[in-house]
């Protein structure tokens, strides 16, 4: 297929993608526009070579071993922000994508796209941060690539990381396993990363000292899987790290993939005051703000209390909370009960509230 034969009007795609002949920022936001781009452009173009399940990572067998494979690209602006940089983000983000399948991360690739004129001191800071994050996560930076683009055709540094992890025998964590009655747990305060990045962008100040929550989560997942004994595994049905599109996007994706409804108790969702204040100023919903060191878990009701207790014992889960329940009603929809007793639909975001957050 050549560029001359591509006809956007022939795509089986609803508005707004069909109405836009060009890529817009919302296509990378993890919301409805991103989903439409994948469903109506990439998957038809890839055909039989494309993926059959659209999770954070692919799971495949090599001999008797089950491996998880994931890739992600990082374009955060600015490159350095309170609590981290694009370096930590690139390592932790891919480690966490692997961890959401229950995998133990083994190694990562690293690819850099550098803009001509970028200070080598900045690149050294980013590379050093990546090395430190990899050592902390116990993974190797095994291979990589570097490209340079002309000045004015990039934004300093873009990073791509891909990772491979090993999934324990008998473990099956994926959205299709979610069932009515499952408890929905979140590992701590939401919206922190997005507000931390926004606080140092374009002179915006919210009177807060919030720092990004970027962190590797595979050790937390391991603790959740074995909350009482290493010989007894908890029944965790699905995991997701709510990055682009925030908690709202992750819950909607899982609800639609599993064909179930999600009932949230809004006051149970841990939103720190600094995040709530910043979102109030900007007219944002904290549930749509990106996180980088948090996870949401769908757990069988009989194991929910034990898993929640194990999360709270772990440094990366001390603020864990039960925030809702999976229901058979309103399949594919996420509904939140407000503090005033009303309910509201928490829909999949159309585009991106805060671009270039990860």
From TrEMBL:
Domain PurM-like N-terminal, first and last residues per copy: 55-167
Superkingdom of origin: Bacteria
UniProt domain PurM-like C-terminal: residue ranges: 179-330
InterPro entries: HypE (IPR011854), PurM-like_C_dom (IPR010918), PurM-like_C_sf (IPR036676), PurM-like_N (IPR016188), PurM-like_N_sf (IPR036921)
Entries under Pfam families matching the protein: AIRS (PF00586), AIRS_C (PF02769)
Record's protein name: Hydrogenase expression/formation protein HypE
Gene Ontology biological process terms, A to Z: protein maturation
Assigned protein family: Belongs to the HypE family.
Organism field: Frankia nepalensis
Gene: hypE
